[in-house]
Amino acid sequence: MRKHSGNVAVFFTSYYFLQQVEKSLKHSEKYIEDPDQTKDQKMALLNGFILSKGGILLGVQGGSFDQGIDFPNNVLKGVIIAGYRSPSPI
Q1: Per-residue pLDDT tens for 32-47?
Q2: Cα separation of 79 and 9, whole Å?
Q3: Spatial distance between the Cα atoms of 48 and 31, rounded to a whole number of angstroms
Q4: Residue 45 and residue 33 in contact, taking contact as beta carbons nearer than 8 Å
């Protein structure tokens, strides 16, 4: 995996999938979307991510951060769409 400088957003198919992957991520600046967050908490999370220099935003597709968000000054350097595929039956 290539090292990438700057902020990256990763979007998952579900909160469960996000939580399972997050457990194994060893990154010091994680900003994690949660379905129980208030609007104010989500704005604080987003503002923290925007101000970070190497943060990773973990969210869900169809959640609060996957569309309609303006990231100023090229703060977002990459986006990853995470999915999984079930093994095919033999």
Answers
A1: 999 999 999 999 999 9
A2: 5
A3: 8
A4: yes
